[in-house]
Protein: Aromatic ring-hydroxylating dioxygenase subunit alpha
Amino acid sequence: MTLIDRPPAHADARPATQRLLEALDARRPGHALPAALYTDPDLHELDLRFIWQRQWIFVGSVAEVPEAGDYLTVDLGPSSVLVLRDDDEQVRAFRNVCRHRGARLVEPGHGSVGNLVCGYHRWTYGTDGALRHAPQLMPGTDPACLGLRTVALREVAGLLFVCLAADPPDDLDRVAEVVDPYLAPHRLSSAKVAAQVDLVEDGNWKLTMENNRECYHCDGHPELLCSLFPTWGLAAHQVPERLRADHERYLQAERDLVARCEELGLPHALVDDLVHRSVGFRVQREPLDGAGESFSPDGRALVRRLLGDLPEFRLGRLGLHTQPNAWFHLQADHAITFAALPLSVDRTLVRTTWLVDADAEEGVDYDVEELTATWRATNAQDADFVALTQAGVADPGYEPGPYSEAEGQVEAFVSWYADRMREEVAR
Structure:
Protein backbone atom coordinates (compact mmCIF):
# COMPACT_ATOMS: atom_id res chain seq x y z
CA MET A 1 0.00 0.00 0.00
CA THR A 2 1.39 3.40 -0.91
CA LEU A 3 1.17 6.31 1.51
CA ILE A 4 -1.59 7.95 -0.50
CA ASP A 5 -3.73 4.79 -0.28
CA ARG A 6 -3.35 4.37 3.47
CA PRO A 7 -6.66 4.78 5.36
CA PRO A 8 -6.89 7.52 7.98
CA ALA A 9 -5.64 6.59 11.42
CA HIS A 10 -9.16 6.77 12.84
CA ALA A 11 -10.70 4.49 10.20
CA ASP A 12 -12.39 1.34 11.47
CA ALA A 13 -13.14 -1.39 8.96
CA ARG A 14 -15.74 -3.09 11.16
CA PRO A 15 -19.38 -2.61 10.13
CA ALA A 16 -21.01 0.39 11.80
CA THR A 17 -23.76 -1.77 13.30
CA GLN A 18 -21.14 -3.96 14.96
CA ARG A 19 -19.43 -0.90 16.44
CA LEU A 20 -22.80 0.43 17.57
CA LEU A 21 -23.64 -2.76 19.46
CA GLU A 22 -20.17 -2.92 20.99
CA ALA A 23 -20.51 0.67 22.20
CA LEU A 24 -23.95 -0.02 23.68
CA ASP A 25 -22.65 -3.21 25.32
CA ALA A 26 -19.74 -1.27 26.80
CA ARG A 27 -21.98 1.15 28.69
CA ARG A 28 -22.36 0.37 32.35
CA PRO A 29 -25.88 0.95 33.73
CA GLY A 30 -26.06 4.31 35.47
CA HIS A 31 -23.14 5.67 33.45
CA ALA A 32 -22.80 7.98 30.45
CA LEU A 33 -22.43 6.63 26.92
CA PRO A 34 -19.07 5.78 25.35
CA ALA A 35 -17.49 8.57 23.33
CA ALA A 36 -18.11 7.02 19.91
CA LEU A 37 -21.86 7.43 20.32
CA TYR A 38 -21.36 11.19 20.49
CA THR A 39 -18.49 11.62 18.02
CA ASP A 40 -18.41 8.91 15.35
CA PRO A 41 -19.98 10.12 12.06
CA ASP A 42 -20.84 6.54 11.03
CA LEU A 43 -22.71 5.90 14.28
CA HIS A 44 -24.45 9.25 13.86
CA GLU A 45 -25.66 8.03 10.48
CA LEU A 46 -27.18 5.05 12.27
CA ASP A 47 -28.90 7.47 14.68
CA LEU A 48 -30.44 9.23 11.70
CA ARG A 49 -31.52 5.94 10.16
CA PHE A 50 -32.81 4.19 13.27
CA ILE A 51 -34.20 7.07 15.34
CA TRP A 52 -34.92 10.03 13.08
CA GLN A 53 -36.18 7.99 10.14
CA ARG A 54 -38.16 5.49 12.24
CA GLN A 55 -39.62 7.18 15.35
CA TRP A 56 -42.33 9.80 15.89
CA ILE A 57 -40.62 13.21 15.92
CA PHE A 58 -42.11 16.45 17.26
CA VAL A 59 -41.86 19.12 14.54
CA GLY A 60 -44.09 22.01 15.61
CA SER A 61 -47.61 23.05 16.54
CA VAL A 62 -50.75 23.77 14.56
CA ALA A 63 -50.32 27.41 15.59
CA GLU A 64 -47.39 27.56 13.16
CA VAL A 65 -49.68 26.79 10.20
CA PRO A 66 -52.84 28.73 11.12
CA GLU A 67 -54.27 29.38 7.64
CA ALA A 68 -54.80 27.36 4.47
CA GLY A 69 -51.56 27.32 2.49
CA ASP A 70 -49.35 27.99 5.52
CA TYR A 71 -46.42 25.62 5.83
CA LEU A 72 -43.31 24.81 7.80
CA THR A 73 -40.37 22.62 6.87
CA VAL A 74 -38.12 20.55 9.09
CA ASP A 75 -35.01 18.56 8.25
CA LEU A 76 -34.71 15.10 9.80
CA GLY A 77 -31.21 14.12 8.78
CA PRO A 78 -31.13 14.05 4.96
CA SER A 79 -34.93 14.17 4.71
CA SER A 80 -36.87 17.40 4.39
CA VAL A 81 -40.48 17.27 5.57
CA LEU A 82 -43.12 19.79 4.51
CA VAL A 83 -46.00 20.32 6.96
CA LEU A 84 -48.86 22.17 5.29
CA ARG A 85 -52.44 23.22 6.04
CA ASP A 86 -54.48 22.38 2.94
CA ASP A 87 -57.43 24.22 1.45
CA ASP A 88 -59.81 22.07 3.51
CA GLU A 89 -58.06 23.22 6.73
CA GLN A 90 -56.45 19.81 7.29
CA VAL A 91 -52.79 19.67 8.31
CA ARG A 92 -50.79 17.27 6.14
CA ALA A 93 -47.15 16.25 5.82
CA PHE A 94 -45.23 15.50 2.63
CA ARG A 95 -41.71 14.82 1.49
CA ASN A 96 -40.32 18.18 0.37
CA VAL A 97 -39.25 16.64 -2.94
CA CYS A 98 -40.62 17.24 -6.43
CA ARG A 99 -41.81 14.03 -8.10
CA HIS A 100 -40.07 15.02 -11.35
CA ARG A 101 -36.32 15.11 -10.72
CA GLY A 102 -36.21 15.65 -7.00
CA ALA A 103 -35.80 19.40 -6.59
CA ARG A 104 -36.73 20.88 -3.21
CA LEU A 105 -40.19 22.40 -3.45
CA VAL A 106 -39.92 25.07 -0.76
CA GLU A 107 -37.05 26.64 1.11
CA PRO A 108 -36.40 25.89 4.79
CA GLY A 109 -38.54 27.73 7.31
CA HIS A 110 -42.12 28.95 7.26
CA GLY A 111 -44.21 30.41 4.47
CA SER A 112 -47.53 30.42 2.66
CA VAL A 113 -48.51 29.18 -0.80
CA GLY A 114 -51.56 28.92 -3.04
CA ASN A 115 -50.09 25.96 -4.89
CA LEU A 116 -46.69 24.31 -4.55
CA VAL A 117 -44.70 25.19 -7.66
CA CYS A 118 -41.33 23.56 -8.23
CA GLY A 119 -38.78 26.26 -9.04
CA TYR A 120 -36.98 24.00 -11.52
CA HIS A 121 -39.48 22.85 -14.15
CA ARG A 122 -42.72 24.36 -12.79
CA TRP A 123 -44.43 21.14 -11.81
CA THR A 124 -47.34 22.33 -9.70
CA TYR A 125 -49.04 20.60 -6.79
CA GLY A 126 -52.19 21.48 -4.84
CA THR A 127 -52.11 21.86 -1.09
CA ASP A 128 -53.48 18.31 -0.95
CA GLY A 129 -50.28 17.10 -2.65
CA ALA A 130 -51.95 16.18 -5.95
CA LEU A 131 -50.08 17.01 -9.16
CA ARG A 132 -52.04 19.79 -10.89
CA HIS A 133 -49.79 20.74 -13.78
CA ALA A 134 -46.66 19.32 -15.43
CA PRO A 135 -45.54 20.94 -18.71
CA GLN A 136 -44.98 18.55 -21.62
CA LEU A 137 -45.71 15.43 -19.60
CA MET A 138 -45.26 12.31 -21.73
CA PRO A 139 -48.50 11.00 -23.27
CA GLY A 140 -49.99 8.18 -21.25
CA THR A 141 -48.47 9.35 -17.96
CA ASP A 142 -51.03 9.32 -15.16
CA PRO A 143 -50.71 12.52 -13.05
CA ALA A 144 -52.65 10.80 -10.26
CA CYS A 145 -49.59 8.61 -9.67
CA LEU A 146 -47.27 11.59 -9.28
CA GLY A 147 -48.64 13.33 -6.21
CA LEU A 148 -46.27 14.28 -3.43
CA ARG A 149 -45.17 11.44 -1.20
CA THR A 150 -47.02 11.64 2.10
CA VAL A 151 -45.46 11.44 5.54
CA ALA A 152 -47.32 10.07 8.55
CA LEU A 153 -48.54 12.96 10.71
CA ARG A 154 -50.36 12.92 14.04
CA GLU A 155 -51.73 15.87 15.99
CA VAL A 156 -51.79 15.54 19.78
CA ALA A 157 -53.77 18.41 21.34
CA GLY A 158 -52.26 20.92 18.91
CA LEU A 159 -48.75 19.41 18.83
CA LEU A 160 -47.56 17.91 15.53
CA PHE A 161 -45.54 14.70 15.24
CA VAL A 162 -44.31 13.10 12.02
CA CYS A 163 -42.79 9.71 11.24
CA LEU A 164 -40.88 8.89 8.06
CA ALA A 165 -41.26 5.13 8.44
CA ALA A 166 -43.59 3.27 6.10
CA ASP A 167 -44.93 1.48 9.19
CA PRO A 168 -44.76 3.95 12.11
CA PRO A 169 -44.69 2.75 15.73
CA ASP A 170 -48.25 2.14 16.85
CA ASP A 171 -48.22 3.54 20.38
CA LEU A 172 -48.61 7.28 19.76
CA ASP A 173 -52.39 6.97 19.99
CA ARG A 174 -52.07 5.45 23.47
CA VAL A 175 -49.71 8.22 24.55
CA ALA A 176 -52.18 10.77 23.19
CA GLU A 177 -54.98 9.25 25.28
CA VAL A 178 -52.90 9.81 28.40
CA VAL A 179 -51.52 13.30 27.75
CA ASP A 180 -54.47 14.87 25.91
CA PRO A 181 -56.48 15.55 29.12
CA TYR A 182 -53.44 17.35 30.57
CA LEU A 183 -52.94 19.48 27.46
CA ALA A 184 -56.56 20.09 26.44
CA PRO A 185 -57.35 22.99 28.86
CA HIS A 186 -54.51 25.01 27.30
CA ARG A 187 -56.19 24.74 23.87
CA LEU A 188 -52.95 24.90 21.87
CA SER A 189 -54.93 24.21 18.71
CA SER A 190 -56.28 27.76 18.91
CA ALA A 191 -53.16 29.51 20.21
CA LYS A 192 -50.84 31.69 18.15
CA VAL A 193 -47.08 32.05 17.88
CA ALA A 194 -45.71 34.99 19.83
CA ALA A 195 -42.04 34.23 19.09
CA GLN A 196 -39.75 31.53 17.75
CA VAL A 197 -35.97 31.32 18.19
CA ASP A 198 -33.56 28.86 16.57
CA LEU A 199 -30.31 28.20 18.40
CA VAL A 200 -27.52 25.89 17.21
CA GLU A 201 -25.73 23.98 19.94
CA ASP A 202 -22.23 22.68 19.23
CA GLY A 203 -22.92 19.17 20.44
CA ASN A 204 -24.41 15.83 19.52
CA TRP A 205 -28.20 15.69 19.74
CA LYS A 206 -28.06 13.18 22.59
CA LEU A 207 -26.02 15.61 24.70
CA THR A 208 -28.69 18.24 24.09
CA MET A 209 -31.36 15.85 25.28
CA GLU A 210 -29.36 14.61 28.26
CA ASN A 211 -28.73 18.17 29.37
CA ASN A 212 -32.44 18.86 29.22
CA ARG A 213 -33.34 15.77 31.22
CA GLU A 214 -31.75 16.92 34.50
CA CYS A 215 -31.54 19.91 36.78
CA TYR A 216 -28.31 18.80 38.45
CA HIS A 217 -26.71 21.73 36.62
CA CYS A 218 -29.47 24.27 37.30
CA ASP A 219 -27.25 26.44 39.50
CA GLY A 220 -26.02 27.61 36.11
CA HIS A 221 -29.47 29.00 35.26
CA PRO A 222 -30.05 32.05 37.51
CA GLU A 223 -32.97 33.32 35.42
CA LEU A 224 -34.72 29.96 35.52
CA LEU A 225 -34.18 29.56 39.26
CA CYS A 226 -36.36 32.62 39.86
CA SER A 227 -39.39 30.43 39.12
CA LEU A 228 -38.14 26.91 39.84
CA PHE A 229 -37.93 25.99 43.50
CA PRO A 230 -34.33 25.54 44.74
CA THR A 231 -35.08 21.91 45.59
CA TRP A 232 -36.95 21.05 42.39
CA GLY A 233 -36.05 17.56 41.23
CA LEU A 234 -34.57 16.47 44.57
CA ALA A 235 -35.94 13.62 46.63
CA ALA A 236 -36.50 14.37 50.31
CA HIS A 237 -33.31 12.60 51.38
CA GLN A 238 -31.28 14.65 48.87
CA VAL A 239 -32.28 18.05 50.25
CA PRO A 240 -29.39 19.70 52.13
CA GLU A 241 -30.10 21.20 55.54
CA ARG A 242 -29.64 24.77 54.27
CA LEU A 243 -32.56 24.22 51.85
CA ARG A 244 -34.99 22.54 54.26
CA ALA A 245 -37.13 25.65 54.60
CA ASP A 246 -37.27 26.03 50.81
CA HIS A 247 -38.26 22.40 50.49
CA GLU A 248 -41.10 22.80 53.00
CA ARG A 249 -42.27 25.81 51.01
CA TYR A 250 -42.19 23.68 47.85
CA LEU A 251 -44.17 20.88 49.50
CA GLN A 252 -46.82 23.34 50.66
CA ALA A 253 -47.06 24.86 47.17
CA GLU A 254 -47.42 21.35 45.77
CA ARG A 255 -50.25 20.55 48.21
CA ASP A 256 -51.99 23.81 47.33
CA LEU A 257 -51.66 23.14 43.59
CA VAL A 258 -52.95 19.59 43.89
CA ALA A 259 -55.96 20.78 45.88
CA ARG A 260 -56.75 23.48 43.32
CA CYS A 261 -56.35 21.07 40.40
CA GLU A 262 -58.72 18.65 42.10
CA GLU A 263 -61.29 21.44 42.50
CA LEU A 264 -60.95 22.43 38.84
CA GLY A 265 -60.79 18.91 37.47
CA LEU A 266 -57.31 19.40 36.01
CA PRO A 267 -55.11 16.28 35.71
CA HIS A 268 -51.87 16.77 37.62
CA ALA A 269 -50.37 13.43 38.71
CA LEU A 270 -47.05 12.21 37.36
CA VAL A 271 -47.20 9.67 34.53
CA ASP A 272 -43.72 8.43 33.66
CA ASP A 273 -43.17 5.94 30.83
CA LEU A 274 -39.88 7.13 29.36
CA VAL A 275 -38.10 3.88 28.54
CA HIS A 276 -40.20 0.96 27.39
CA ARG A 277 -42.40 2.35 24.61
CA SER A 278 -41.43 3.83 21.24
CA VAL A 279 -42.89 7.20 22.23
CA GLY A 280 -41.38 7.47 25.69
CA PHE A 281 -43.03 10.28 27.64
CA ARG A 282 -43.39 11.96 31.01
CA VAL A 283 -46.14 14.39 32.06
CA GLN A 284 -46.93 16.19 35.33
CA ARG A 285 -48.29 19.50 36.61
CA GLU A 286 -46.00 21.08 39.21
CA PRO A 287 -45.87 24.31 41.23
CA LEU A 288 -43.71 27.29 40.35
CA ASP A 289 -41.96 29.52 42.87
CA GLY A 290 -42.83 33.13 43.66
CA ALA A 291 -46.32 34.00 42.49
CA GLY A 292 -46.51 30.50 40.98
CA GLU A 293 -47.86 31.70 37.65
CA SER A 294 -45.11 31.71 35.03
CA PHE A 295 -41.39 31.71 34.18
CA SER A 296 -40.59 35.26 35.22
CA PRO A 297 -38.34 37.02 37.76
CA ASP A 298 -41.11 37.07 40.38
CA GLY A 299 -43.18 34.13 39.13
CA ARG A 300 -45.99 36.40 37.92
CA ALA A 301 -47.79 35.94 34.61
CA LEU A 302 -46.09 37.38 31.53
CA VAL A 303 -49.29 37.51 29.46
CA ARG A 304 -52.38 39.29 30.75
CA ARG A 305 -54.77 37.02 28.89
CA LEU A 306 -55.29 33.45 30.07
CA LEU A 307 -54.43 30.65 27.66
CA GLY A 308 -57.25 28.44 26.46
CA ASP A 309 -59.90 27.43 28.99
CA LEU A 310 -57.83 27.90 32.14
CA PRO A 311 -59.69 29.89 34.81
CA GLU A 312 -56.79 31.46 36.71
CA PHE A 313 -53.06 32.13 36.50
CA ARG A 314 -51.68 30.38 39.61
CA LEU A 315 -51.59 26.87 38.19
CA GLY A 316 -47.85 26.23 38.07
CA ARG A 317 -46.54 24.54 34.97
CA LEU A 318 -47.49 21.46 33.03
CA GLY A 319 -44.30 19.69 31.99
CA LEU A 320 -44.26 17.16 29.15
CA HIS A 321 -41.27 15.28 27.72
CA THR A 322 -41.37 13.04 24.66
CA GLN A 323 -38.57 10.84 23.37
CA PRO A 324 -36.51 11.43 21.34
CA ASN A 325 -36.54 15.17 20.79
CA ALA A 326 -39.02 17.38 22.61
CA TRP A 327 -40.02 19.03 25.85
CA PHE A 328 -42.84 21.41 26.69
CA HIS A 329 -43.76 23.85 29.46
CA LEU A 330 -47.38 25.00 29.64
CA GLN A 331 -48.49 27.69 32.06
CA ALA A 332 -51.85 29.38 32.38
CA ASP A 333 -50.60 32.44 30.47
CA HIS A 334 -48.46 30.87 27.72
CA ALA A 335 -46.86 27.66 26.49
CA ILE A 336 -43.35 26.92 25.25
CA THR A 337 -42.39 24.11 22.89
CA PHE A 338 -38.83 22.91 22.35
CA ALA A 339 -37.63 20.69 19.50
CA ALA A 340 -34.08 19.35 19.16
CA LEU A 341 -33.08 18.44 15.60
CA PRO A 342 -29.68 17.00 14.56
CA LEU A 343 -27.65 18.98 12.04
CA SER A 344 -24.48 16.86 12.16
CA VAL A 345 -22.69 14.55 14.55
CA ASP A 346 -21.67 17.55 16.68
CA ARG A 347 -24.29 20.21 15.95
CA THR A 348 -27.94 20.34 17.04
CA LEU A 349 -30.68 22.85 16.30
CA VAL A 350 -32.87 23.77 19.28
CA ARG A 351 -36.10 25.45 18.16
CA THR A 352 -38.04 27.25 20.90
CA THR A 353 -41.56 28.55 20.26
CA TRP A 354 -43.69 30.67 22.60
CA LEU A 355 -47.47 30.30 22.20
CA VAL A 356 -50.11 32.66 23.59
CA ASP A 357 -53.89 32.88 23.35
CA ALA A 358 -54.99 33.80 19.84
CA ASP A 359 -56.66 36.99 21.12
CA ALA A 360 -53.63 38.21 23.08
CA GLU A 361 -52.20 41.43 21.62
CA GLU A 362 -48.48 42.10 21.48
CA GLY A 363 -47.68 45.37 23.21
CA VAL A 364 -50.99 45.26 25.09
CA ASP A 365 -51.19 41.82 26.69
CA TYR A 366 -47.53 40.88 26.50
CA ASP A 367 -44.06 42.13 25.63
CA VAL A 368 -42.03 39.72 23.49
CA GLU A 369 -38.70 40.55 25.16
CA GLU A 370 -40.12 39.94 28.63
CA LEU A 371 -42.00 36.84 27.51
CA THR A 372 -38.90 35.17 26.07
CA ALA A 373 -36.19 36.46 28.43
CA THR A 374 -35.95 33.50 30.82
CA TRP A 375 -35.66 30.82 28.18
CA ARG A 376 -33.46 32.83 25.80
CA ALA A 377 -30.96 33.15 28.64
CA THR A 378 -31.40 29.54 29.78
CA ASN A 379 -31.04 28.14 26.27
CA ALA A 380 -27.83 30.11 25.72
CA GLN A 381 -26.43 28.77 28.98
CA ASP A 382 -27.42 25.23 28.02
CA ALA A 383 -25.69 25.66 24.65
CA ASP A 384 -22.48 26.48 26.50
CA PHE A 385 -22.85 23.40 28.72
CA VAL A 386 -23.46 21.15 25.70
CA ALA A 387 -20.43 22.57 23.86
CA LEU A 388 -18.25 21.95 26.92
CA THR A 389 -19.45 18.36 27.06
CA GLN A 390 -18.96 17.74 23.33
CA ALA A 391 -15.37 18.95 23.64
CA GLY A 392 -14.89 16.62 26.61
CA VAL A 393 -16.35 13.45 25.10
CA ALA A 394 -14.14 14.00 22.03
CA ASP A 395 -11.04 14.10 24.26
CA PRO A 396 -8.98 10.86 24.41
CA GLY A 397 -9.05 11.22 28.19
CA TYR A 398 -12.82 10.84 28.42
CA GLU A 399 -14.22 7.92 30.38
CA PRO A 400 -17.99 7.66 30.99
CA GLY A 401 -18.76 8.68 34.56
CA PRO A 402 -21.59 7.67 36.89
CA TYR A 403 -24.86 9.56 36.99
CA SER A 404 -25.96 11.26 40.19
CA GLU A 405 -29.25 10.50 41.94
CA ALA A 406 -30.67 13.63 40.31
CA GLU A 407 -30.02 12.29 36.81
CA GLY A 408 -32.58 9.50 36.70
CA GLN A 409 -34.24 10.93 33.60
CA VAL A 410 -30.87 11.02 31.82
CA GLU A 411 -30.51 7.30 32.52
CA ALA A 412 -34.07 6.83 31.22
CA PHE A 413 -33.29 8.70 27.99
CA VAL A 414 -30.07 6.77 27.39
CA SER A 415 -31.83 3.47 28.12
CA TRP A 416 -34.64 4.41 25.70
CA TYR A 417 -32.05 5.25 23.03
CA ALA A 418 -30.16 2.00 23.53
CA ASP A 419 -33.34 -0.09 23.41
CA ARG A 420 -34.58 1.54 20.21
CA MET A 421 -31.20 1.17 18.49
CA ARG A 422 -30.96 -2.50 19.42
CA GLU A 423 -34.49 -3.10 18.14
CA GLU A 424 -33.63 -1.54 14.80
CA VAL A 425 -30.41 -3.51 14.40
CA ALA A 426 -32.41 -6.69 15.08
CA ARG A 427 -34.98 -5.97 12.35
